[in-house]
Every structure is written in structure tokens, then in C-alpha cells.
Amino acid sequence: MEFPQPVTAKWIAELIEADIIGDSAREATGINELHKVKSGDIVFVDHPKYYDNCLKSAATFVIINDNTVTKPEDKVLLYCDKPFDAYLKIVQHFRPFTAASSMIDPSAVIGKDTIISPGVFIGKDVVIGEGCIIYPNTTISDYTRIGNHVIIQSGTVIGSDAFYYNTRKTEPVWYRKMQSCGAVIIEDYVEIGANCTIDRGVTDATRIGQGTKMDNLVHVGHDTEIGKNCLFAAQVGIAGATKIEDGVTLWGQVGVSKTLTIGENATVLAQSGVPSSLKGGKTYFGYPAEEAGYKRRELVWVKRIPELWKKVFQED
Amino acid sequence: MEFPQPVTAKWIAELIEADIIGDSAREATGINELHKVKSGDIVFVDHPKYYDNCLKSAATFVIINDNTVTKPEDKVLLYCDKPFDAYLKIVQHFRPFTAASSMIDPSAVIGKDTIISPGVFIGKDVVIGEGCIIYPNTTISDYTRIGNHVIIQSGTVIGSDAFYYNTRKTEPVWYRKMQSCGAVIIEDYVEIGANCTIDRGVTDATRIGQGTKMDNLVHVGHDTEIGKNCLFAAQVGIAGATKIEDGVTLWGQVGVSKTLTIGENATVLAQSGVPSSLKGGKTYFGYPAEEAGYKRRELVWVKRIPELWKKVFQED
Amino acid sequence: MEFPQPVTAKWIAELIEADIIGDSAREATGINELHKVKSGDIVFVDHPKYYDNCLKSAATFVIINDNTVTKPEDKVLLYCDKPFDAYLKIVQHFRPFTAASSMIDPSAVIGKDTIISPGVFIGKDVVIGEGCIIYPNTTISDYTRIGNHVIIQSGTVIGSDAFYYNTRKTEPVWYRKMQSCGAVIIEDYVEIGANCTIDRGVTDATRIGQGTKMDNLVHVGHDTEIGKNCLFAAQVGIAGATKIEDGVTLWGQVGVSKTLTIGENATVLAQSGVPSSLKGGKTYFGYPAEEAGYKRRELVWVKRIPELWKKVFQED
């Protein structure tokens, strides 16, 4: 998330009651989680396991619960007891959750020749382009950006919260919600089927590239980036922070794990599971998804086990 | 789709700016895509790969972008540069998309003792029989026909558009939507769970036979025909133009591919995948789904590989 | 379901036109199906296959279509021709289905600082605690109980009917709906994603324990009990009357069958299928789900079949 205008380390430190280690006049331009962080950003870390990743990240400001770590030269540290609460406080300040009071927020910008059907909810700070059709009973959450000639079928939810939690198994409630402050960006000529769910980014954006088409009941996780001209059949599920490059086809009920990449023009056959990155231009199948020709031969090999058995044990 | 009244080849040719090869006075009664075409129908074809199928189909009229093909004796050809655009023009003429202005279109015909809950959207030209319960926040799209004593749980979408595209990978946007003008027909005593999606036919109808029951989050593709007394557990997905005969049971998360047939009284066990037709009266399992007894033995054979290995390589 | 006040066997017998075998003054406190039945309850049975289970169950009253069975000493039998219809009559009496006339029933009790977004449907006799957020276009059905600090994302349906039918294949309509009269109980700090479906209990309750978090498009069947601090990723499906103990993690697209138990702190990896109970504290994978380490080795063994084949058949 970008701040509407830069704020100083001093201002942030006062908001979250932190000690500044470094230049208190330095200006922060936004806040992001580790996967999406860039120069000017604030990032937070509350577990020694991740200290190193955060201190070496592109972030300029690190909210941290250890004031003995060595400050990298080009960074500002913000020391406090509970970095996760500090994160929530900053998000709450810049993107406070407010109750919607109408089905279509008055702030919505809706382009020419776009049809918003009955029963559609549109949150605050939403922009929808021209020539779109938003079918009945869909939900378009806060901060969503939709291009031109986009079609969204009924019952679909754009911008549900990221499934992203801070885990503390010593507490009675193990999982604390990492408040989502990101958005969903949908480019021109995208079509999304009925009863799909597209999660917003935790701090950045979930993106769907131009001309991509999705069938019904498809799930897209937070911060996932989907290229142009992809085709996802019904009930496909894609976890968070994954990258699907241009022209990828996923057939029905395919599952794709988080933080991986599927290369350009790859095809994944129905019901396959993708636990790690796949190179582009090929067809994959099975769990874990492997090249389809190889996997099909494997199915044939399995059918030959009885023959092997007979040969081996008859020779006794 | 049937036209409200027959139209001459001449009338159609003027609408789509085509040349007529054949009898210009001949009357067309409807338009359908290749899977559903019948005598009196118009069909379109824009790729040489499918010319033959269309010219040999039951259609009386073929919109085609090649005026050198040999006209079958009993047919009328409508020659134009862009048959796909011609198709869209005809559909747009007879079933124009119009924005809904209310949650329940005034054209809806709703039977005695039928309950339409709050938050339900009903499009135009919808007929719902007697003694039905339509639960809150469901969407019933244009042209849907629902019989008597049908129950539809909350959040379900009846009549979302077919996931059916015209592909041109040379264009910046590869997939162009094949405008759906078909319907969904639901017979008596059908029950559909919550947050399901039933796509309308592209040009004909998706049908759900009497007494069939579906659990939640089930997807049924366009033009699929489902028999009587079928039972589909949660998260089943069925692709387009498939035929499920009477009395078929599909357990949870089963996936069924397109344009195939599952025979009467077949049972497919949970999470199985069905890539090709299955005979009736048997129980299937796995991917690709095979007879359950055979498949279970296969799982046992796989567990015997280590023993085989030991035997074979110890003998060295 | 508990009755609002106890009723005598005589009163019930008159309602359902049954003969009483036993003490007609004995008081019934509720009605439940076999899985959930307890002392004071009525249960019904209409098939000899289940007579024994019902007669030996904890129920005090058994509605049965055979007056020749031996009455257990501590029970009252209610003899009638059609026990299933008798069940429906009792449920219909105590929990009649009535059409909702507004999006939020006036009987709803909604706690302090709870946000009910636009487009939310709330049925009758619903209680929602404090500090909850119910996102747009969700459906909260009759009798639901929601604790404090619960978040429900858009489009989710709480309390859809159980997928539970009385089967008679000799009738034209094979499956008759077992009318649901149960509820959904959601404890504090639970979060449920977008477009999920949580079925109500048939006669008792579906329960989701404190601090459990679910991603989008998750299905939970009727009467299922989910413990505290569970984590379910997107598109998980859990059938009816199953028990998921505390701290269980189910990754994306996992399917869990009915009436089984997954033990405390078990983890089931993505796309796995669980057909029978799993012990706690371990990680499982595949279909049928087995210990992940074992299953991973099995995948490796399959890849060695060609080598085995070569060795065995080259030796000929």
C-alpha cells in the first residue's frame, strides 16, 4: 500500500510508539509485506527467523522487536515490542475499515456503457471502466480497479481478505488476521465466471491480466499475478503470491500452490496439483504435476506391475 | 435458440450482410452451435478445420467465410467474411442483452405457493412452477425454466454464461466470448445446494432432470444434460455438453470432462476424474476413473513395488 | 432439536397419528436423527436394516413402522405406517418453514460493534455476538448462533440445508428431503472466507470451534464438528457428521468423507482425500490419505517401475 503522501520516520514512530534507530527525518512512502516490499516502504518483522530477510530486503524501514540487531547502513529501524500490532495500527490509520452504508458507495467511479446489475455491492474507492457488465449479486470490495469491457458473472466476490495470519500457538487463539490493505486490479477484456473469489493483496495488489477468462467457482489468492490471455476452467484454485504468466491454461479443478511461477503458455490438465514452479510452453498433468507425456506413461507402467510380479515370483 | 417466428434466408443475409448461395426464400427457425444443431437451424463456421462437420450437420443454413466450398444440395450457405460476428449479430437481434432494472423482472411468472426469498434476482422471461423455495441471494438468469417443488439454496447462480470462446491467438485478446443465448431448464422436485453454478446453454438448454439433488458448490457447464434422480455431492464439477443419464451418483469433488456420457445408475467415487464416457450400472474411482474394484487392486499393487524391488535386485 | 417445552407421548401420537406402545405420559424433550440422539429424544426408523440401531440408541421414543418388534424396557414406541412423514410433521410443527419478508428478520439479536454489511440476509432466531464483521451479500439462515469477533466474508452461506435424503428407488422421485431443523454454531474469533457454505445440522448443530479460520469456497457438511484453531485452505470440502479435532490444518482442495474423525493437530496436504479416520499429530497426503513420508516414498517407487521392468525382462 502506498501512503497518500510520504510520512517521516518520526511520525510513524509516534503512531506506533516505537524507538527510532537511524534517521528520524527519512520519509516512508508505503507499507508492504516481505513479498512485495520496495524502497521507501515500511516492513515489519516479529520473529528472529525472518529478521535477516527483512533487514536485507528492499524496504527502507523495518519495524522490529529486537533493538540489538545491527542496523543496515541504508535503513531505519523502528523498535517496538509488538511489530504485528504496529503494522495493524498503520494499516488502520491509512485504510480504516468502515461500515458500508449503501450497496454502491458514492465514491465509486463507473465508466460509460457499464452495466451494474441489481444486488451488486460496490465498496469505497472503486473504479470500473467502460463497457463492463457486472452481473447480479456480485461483491466488488474497497479499492478494486476494473478496466474496460470486463464481464463479471453473478455471485462473484472481488477483493475478499487475504487468508494470511500471524501464528502464535502459545495463545488461546492461534491465528491473528494480517489485516489486508491491498487491492485487486483487473485489466481490460477480462471475464470472471459465477461465484468466483479473488482475494485482495495483503498490502499490494492481486492482478489479472488483459483478456484472461475464468470459469465459475475459481479461487485466486492474495497478491497473485495472472498474465494476459490465460484460461482457467471451473473450480481452479490458486494460492497466494503466485505468478501465472501470459497464455497459461489451467483445466478444471487444478490446484496451484503459493509463491511459485507457471511459465508462459503452459497448460495444466484437469485435477492436477502444482506444488512448485513449472516451465512455460509445456503440458502438465497429475500430482505433483509433471510433463503429461511422462505422466501418462507412468500410468501405463503402474498397470504392468502385476505382469512384473508374475514374472518375478513365478521364477521361484 | 428458436426464433419467435421463422425468418427467410434473405432476411438473415441482410441482417449479417452475407451473400446467399442457395434458396433465399427458405425459412430458418433458429440458430444453434454445432453440438445442438437441427434441421431448420442456422450454424456458423469460420475455420476450415470445422467446415466439413458443419456442412454435413443437420443445420439447414451455414454461415461460412469461404464461398468456394461445394454447397450441399439440401442446404443454404450464407457467405461473409466474419461468421463469428454474424452469429453475434443474430443473437443480439433476437436475445439482446438488456440491463435489469429490478431484482425481479416484471415478466417473471411465479407459480402458486412458491417462495421467493429476499435478495433473489430473477431475470427476464423466467418461469418458476408451484411449491418451490428459492432461498436468499440466489440469481436466476434470463430465460430460465423451473418446474414444480424445486428447492434452490442460497447464493446459487442459475444461468451464468457458457465458458465458450472463439480463439484467435494472433489478436491481442485471444478469446472472444461466444455470446450465450440458451437457457437452463430445471424439472420437478430438483434440489440444488448453496453457491452452485449452473451455466446456461450456448444456444440450446442445460437440463436437470426430475428429482435430481445437488449439494453445495456444484458446477454444471453449458448444454449439459442431467437425467432424473441423480445425486451430486458437494464441489462436483461437470464441464459443458456432457450427458449424465438417470440415477447417476457422483460423490464429492468429482470432475467430469466435456461432451461425454455417464451411463444410467453409474456411481463415481469421491475426487475421481472422468475424462471419457463411462458405462452405466458400475462404480468407478480414480483418475482416469476406472472400475472401482480394479482401481483398488491397483493401489495395492503399487504398495508391492518395494517387495518386487527387493526380490529382483537381491538376486544380483 | 430441543422442543421449547417437553411434550407427552400421547400428544406426539395424536400429532402423527401413531399407536403408543409403552407409557403414554412419558415426556419427550426433542427429536434427533440417529447420529445425534440422546435420552429424552424421539428418533424415527422406517427400514428393518436400521431397527436395531434405533432400538438400542439413547433415544427414549422410537417412531417405527413395525408393531411386532420387541419394545426395549426403557423406551416408548410410536407405531405408524410412515415414520418419515411423522418426522416431517413433528419438525414442521416445531420449526415451520416460513417465508422471510425482509433481509434482516426483526428477531435477530446483534451484538455491540458488529457490522452487518449491505445485502446480508439474516433469518429468524439468529444471534450474532459483539465485534463481528459480516461482509456483503452473505446469508445467515434461521437459528444460527455466532459468537464474538467473528468475520464472515462476502457471499458465504451459513445454514444451508443438510444434503440428507430418504431413499426409495421404487418411487418416481427417489430421494425425499430429510427436512433440516438443526442449526450452525460458530464460536468466537472464527473467520470464514468468501462464498463458503456451512450446512446446518439435520436435527442438531454444525459447530465451528473458537479461532478456526477458513479460506474461500470451503464446504462444511451438516452436523460436522470442527475444533478450535483449525486452518482450512480454499476449496476444502468436509462431508456430514464428521469430527475435526482442535488444531487441524487442511490444505487446499482437500476432501474429507462423512462420519469420521481427524485427530488433534493433524495436517492434511493439498488435494488429499480422507475416506476414513486419521490419528492426530501427523501429516497426511494422497488418496486415500496416508502418512506423507510414506506416500512420498511411494511416488518414488512408482518411478522405479521401468528400471525393474528392464532388469526383469532383459534377463529372459
UniProtKB/TrEMBL annotation, chains A, B, C:
An example Gene Ontology CC term for this record: membrane
Residue span, Mannose-1-phosphate guanyltransferase C-terminal domain: 101-160
Gene Ontology BP term (one): lipid A biosynthetic process
Molecular functions per Gene Ontology: N-acyltransferase activity
CDD domains: LbH_LpxD
Assigned keywords, A-Z: Acyltransferase, Lipid A biosynthesis, Lipid biosynthesis, Lipid metabolism, Repeat, Transferase
UniProt keyword Lyase present: no
A Pfam family recorded for this sequence: Hexapep_2
Domain UDP-3-O-[3-hydroxymyristoyl] glucosamine N-acyltransferase non-repeat region: 29-93
InterPro entries: GMPPB_C, Hexapep, LpxD, Trimer_LpxA-like_sf, UDP_GlcNAc_AcTrfase_non-rep
PANTHER family noted in UniProt: UDP-3-O-ACYLGLUCOSAMINE N-ACYLTRANSFERASE (PTHR43378), UDP-3-O-ACYLGLUCOSAMINE N-ACYLTRANSFERASE 1, MITOCHONDRIAL-RELATED (PTHR43378:SF2)
Name listed for the protein in its UniProt record: UDP-3-O-[3-hydroxymyristoyl] glucosamine N-acyltransferase
